[in-house]
């Protein structure tokens, strides 16, 4: 496995682990400043809106798994097709499970780190 592929697969695992621990700043470091997220039922949104959403969910308990289905690297760009299974539990509430596919575009930044530039999340 090439170094870039290892780095991208590691990014996916770091995202899940940081999300599980509620480490929003670590998650934000994994995305470009101009990132765009697309999810069902909402207009596309960026890094600032993601941070605000994450802050509102800081007391939730999160667990999840990832199964990378396809990963292609083309120079400083890559795309990743992934199957996610995520469970979010609000304080004192019932768990909510979402699963489905994502299509993520990543960009290798000037510092040599891969970051998420676009993400279409189809979890339902």
TrEMBL record:
Q: Name one Pfam family in it.
A: DUF4440
List, alphabetically, the InterPro entries matched: DUF4440, NTF2-like_dom_sf, Steroid_delta5-4_isomerase
Report the domain of life of the source organism: Bacteria
Q: Which residues form the DUF4440 domain?
A: 8-116
Q: What is this protein called?
A: Uncharacterized protein (TIGR02246 family)
